[in-house]
Amino acid sequence: MSGKGSRKQKLIRAPSDLVSKLSREAASQGKTLYSYVTEIFEQATRAYEMNRSLKEVLDTFEVLDVPKEAGTVYTPKDVLDYLIQKTFRENGEELQQMWYHAGKWYGTYLKEKFEQPFETFLQLLQDGKWDLNEVTMNKSDEKIVLKCVSAFISQERSLLLQNFIEGAAHSLGYKTQEKNCFKGIIRLALFKSEPQGLEEQYSV
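The structure assignment produced for this chain is given below.
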């Protein structure tokens, strides 16, 4: 490999199939293998300096990329709350059903893409874009108790988020055993159900 003369070089052993793959990727980007591998090492070091492994960073990015793939559009909180409150008064049940089915789509998508879809969904809820201060999950055998707490979201948005979470949980093979929703507080008790068809009875 050739590189910058100012840098000392050291031979690192690596599996030949991995080197071949890196060579092809470097060539496709118009880079030398040396510069491409150096860039990878620099970014890995950057992750470690943040007390994160490169795998951890990439796994997080993969999860956070889900909303973009789902066509999610981020809206200012005040605007969103205004639209929700205005629509909820006239079509509250229909709006809750829409959020439920949006959750089912998320759950189905996560099930196809990730080995641990429910844990991935939990990470999505924790990513900060839902205005939740706390998201906790207690799991025992086939039962899950999920609690979400926020100091910011309205009663209406709490109800919609509850339906969104239920939709995702149902598509991931859980049924609702108990649910409580107040302004900024959502608590769902879920249990593992037998595999069923895609269509489930929706209830508000």
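Interim note for the steering committee: Residues 196-204 have pLDDT under 50 and may be disordered. Helices lie at 16-28, 33-49, 54-64, 66-69, 77-113, 117-125, 155-171.
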